[in-house]
Known about the structure:
Radius of gyration of chain B: 31 Å
Helix content of chain A: 25-40%
Number of helices of chain A: 3
Distance between the termini of chain B: 30 Å
Order of helices and strands of chain B: HHEEHEEEEEEEHHHEEHEHHHHHH
Distance between the termini of chain A: 51 Å
Order of helices and strands of chain A: HEEEEEEEHHEEEEEEEEEEEEEEEEE
Structural class of chain B: alpha+beta
Oligomer: heterodimer
Structural class of chain A: alpha+beta
Strand order of the largest sheet of chain A: 3-12-15-14-13-16
Largest sheet of chain B: 10 strands, mixed
Number of strands of chain A: 24
Strand content of chain B: 15-25%
Largest interface: A-B, 50 and 46 residues
Number of domains of chain B: 2
Number of strands of chain B: 12
Amino acid sequence: xxxxxxxxxxxxxAVVVLAAILLLFVARSGPLASMRVTVAPATRVxxxxxxxxxxxxxxxxSYLVGPTTAxxxxxxxxxxxDVVKAGQLLAEMDPVDLDQRLAATSAAASRAKSAVDTAxxxxxxxxxxxxxxxxxxxxxxxxxRKGFVSSSMTEGKTQEMNSAKAQFAxxxxxxxxxxxxxxxxxxxxxxxxxxxxxxxxxxxxxxxxTARDAEPGSTVIAGQAVVRLIATDSLWLKLRLDQHxxxxxxxxxxxxxxxxxxxxxxxxxxxxxxxxxxxAVTEERIAQVAFDTxxxxxxxxxxxxxxxxxxxVKQALAVPGAALRLHGGKSGVWxxxxxxxxxxxxxxxxxxxxxxxxxxxxxxEGDVVIVHSxxxxxxxxxxxxxxTLTGS
Amino acid sequence: xxxxxxRDILHSWGKFVLTGVGLGLLIxxxxxxxxxxxxxxxxxxxxxxxxxxDIWVVQKDTQGPYAEASSIRDDxxxxxxxxxxxxxxxxxxxxxxxxxxxxxxLRTMVVGFEPGQPGEPGYLVAGRRLLRGHxxxxxxxxxxxxxGERIRIRRHDYEVVGLTRRMVSSGGDPMVFIPLKDAQEAQxxxxxxAITADRARTAANPALNRPGVPGLLDAVTASQTINHSVNAVxxxxxxxxxAANVAQEIRRWKHxxxxxxxxxxxxxxxxxxxxxxxxxxxxxxxxxxxxxxIVAFIIYTMTLGKIREIAVLKLIGTRNRTIAGxxxxxxxxxxxxxxxxxxxxxxLWAPAFPKYVLLETADAMRALVIVMVVCALASTLAIRAxxxxxxxxxxxx
Lengths: 392, 397
């Protein structure tokens, strides 16, 4: 009978142990298992929000230097990368017959000058004639009145005097005409010279040549660039910010700039301008960020990551952002009260750079909320608070 | 009253337990197979649940975004927001791709989502949500990434700022969540060589590179690199409207396809994973049949092994009921041990599977019933053999 009792106990013990193991497994890994969560209290902290966007290095001032009329490029004096000064010759267009036309107008002007001289001489001649004729007319008039000469003689001399006067007037007019002709030809020559100098493409400002778009011999149309310049002291970044993450963007905000070519280096800058026109398609706002000190060897079009830090909120009631959940179409947090989760809708405000979110309404200081959870929370879920859900 | 079954088991308990454990492992394998099937279905369901949408709006005449490729313009959602009954609408992209993690390649589904909109992971197990609009990622813990690690997707590095759990594609690949704009770029941006080659092709086209029209080539090239497409728009229906009605309106007026949760589940479970599910289901059936057969044979041979003792029992006048009860009790006990060992082993090794294995309690209960019934049926075979035995065998041999 002893072995009988032993058997009974052994069987019971075995069944209990097996059932216990089974229960343990069911409790730890089934739908009955309690969900592990991490919690955090709502505390008052200083929230420093951040704005983050992608910037592209651009030149604030860039110049396309090209001819104003269609023509052929005669020679290009600079190459890409050359540093040029304002007024420096960059390229020259082929003048075709402009030099000859300039020579022709010059010759015509010289000839006009000679014509002026001729006219002046003729005027002097006519003055001399007029004076002699006037003296003769006076003398014959005197003699005619005394009766020494016939009146026809007198009249003849008077007529000679009038004729000399008319010739003087004609010579005077001829001189004025010759002078006007000279002025016209001078102006034509100056115009041709202007046109000639217009074919010399000069640098409008100090800068660096970024492109040499046409080579000697190629034909370009009016307005097409032969050489492109940028002013190197005008490099800035065109920053694109997602519209719904751009609150607090303002001119003068300090910017942390990380160029793609030097990821370890943070350059400083400032928001220089906020564009009135955003990008409606990509739903982004555009702002320009200027370097405090432009870096050397930066290339146009280089991508950069820009972080702005708008003014934050002091001593705001905040919870970690991971605690915010959507439940029943409402945004809120799961409050841990008496060991049970309870959903509380909240109104949120500023989000800090550490991920904390300001709670404007719905929580009070010291309320403990569930931050991380193994799956979606529900009011009737059993939960177990742990310090971390990942790692051991 | 003495327990005949108990005495017999005690007599050769080592053999009995070992047989039970062996049987248990077989049952464990069967349970796991059921778990694999359930896990597959659950993967599909969880994908839909996690997206948080009531309606999936995809390209017309496609069954996207999971079962088929779908591409719609990323401004479609604006039109949808204006429709009655639509509470939220958000663009989303899905891209299955290999992501490098250390020295290994990892198959993941990269999801592009807009923070605060449907498509965002509903809960995190560590870290925080996305703060920056670019180059931050939330990864499923299954990917193996840790907080602060960097993931390279196409040409950009993304910092893992949050970890989530059970966010998988219908194929069971863990998800990596990145901002929508980055995902759009990752999905549609070609590699640099291809871009350069494309530019050269465009430049070689005389129609697009005309000498008299400076700037035309630049304009054409620029227009080629822009892509404003997403795979789907996730719509949340406002209170007081049914998803079916809203989806109907969207289909009618917006020239896109809209699926409700039920339709999407139908597509995923009945179409996308149908073949592999059937494959596993077939295997599960065979495994169940084989397990049942093995249980039956074990009990039968166990009984035959002690046929001489049974003959002795009969000789000393033991009633048939007692003998049958002994065999039945032993069979059921074996089944119970087998089930418990099976359940425990399945629970133990399930997390080690690369894809999700869902062990449902209902399945386990069903398995328990089946095991017990099979054991009972199998014991009838053995009982018949035992009852037929001639008591003379005990002395005659």
